[in-house]
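Translate sequence into structure tokens.
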Amino acid sequence: MPHLQDVSGAVTKNLFLKDKKKKGLWLVSARHDRQVNLNDLAKKLGVGSGNLRFADEAIMLEKLKVGQGCATALALLFDKDQSVKFILDRDLVEGGHQMIYFHPMTNAATMGLRPEDLLRFLKETGHEPILESFQ
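Result follows.
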């Protein structure tokens, strides 16, 4: 974060999750300073409290072609069958941010997209975002 202190916009954190029964996969992109409560999110998604957990790196490599620490909305490009549902922090697209910052498939760099460009990218990949509010 020290390198991103002076950027105008929102920096994201990304979580790749699965449900307890391994039937569903979710990628969550939220502002880096937001708390993501997995129990609350599980209830909202209808998978039941306590049923969301971090997915194994092997699943992330298979579905998104990125390893641990490199989850990003941009990797949805590789989810050709749309088996990964995308949860997006509502503030990222409705909070008036000029730019939203993501890893570009590696955690060694960060790139910015305008919110409308992110939404256009998601539409092109067939991933309609599920908007959620995180505190």
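Note: The mean pLDDT is 91.
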